[in-house]
Amino acid sequence: MFKVRITKDALPLELRVRGQQSGETISVRLILSGAKMPAANGATLLLGPFLYERAPSTVVGFDKLRWLRVHVADLSPGSAKLKAVHALTPAPLLRVLGRARMTPTGPGSRLYRGSAAYDNPVVRSSLARLTGGTEYRELRISAYVGRDGLVHRLVITGRTADRSTTLSLSARLFAFGRPVHVKPPPPGMFTDAKLVRLGA
Q1: What is the C-alpha separation between 51 and 174, in angstroms, rounded?
Q2: Mean pLDDT of the chain
């Protein structure tokens, strides 16, 4: 679970992401809210050979047919859809942490603090989809490592070069190694992308 908060000219925009992931499954639910916009929620599910995308709650006129099913085999490995799904997992955040210079806050402490170079290619690409491509500098990072040796909490902050916009990203990681149990949307709740193309 993580939260991305971007504040520009004192106006916040916040994305909350809650999900679970296994080797071949990614299930994500998200809520986007801002000072001058109604909150909208959506969901994405990568399960077996299919990618399911739920229409945002602000989109009307779908009745029960709110999901679109896409065949993963029809997507290229570098497709925007797949990149968007993986951007909503902890992997990009951990890649940023992997490029940071971190030190423990004290002897035997499990809390680490440090920074990452904003112009590092891995850092830049890992944050791009969560920040809309905006470049943030002065990246400060805090990470708490549990007794299991895994990262349980992670905070990343930064600001744009002109200091007009700030970034605050906080993540809580848990349930390591537990099985992921998800079900696809039932028939009648989704339409297939191939049928949509045929009807176009």
Answers
A1: 24
A2: 90
Listed in sequence order, the residues at least 6 apart from 37 whose beta carbon sits closer than 8 Å to its beta carbon are none
pLDDT digits 0-9 by tens, 125-135: 999 989 989 99
Quickly tell me which residue has 């895994």 as its tokens: 150
Tokens of 41: 């929620």
pLDDT in tens, 18-62: 999 988 899 999 999 987 778 889 999 999 999 999 987 766 555
d(CA 120, CA 91): 16
Residue 77 has pLDDT above 90, yes or no: no
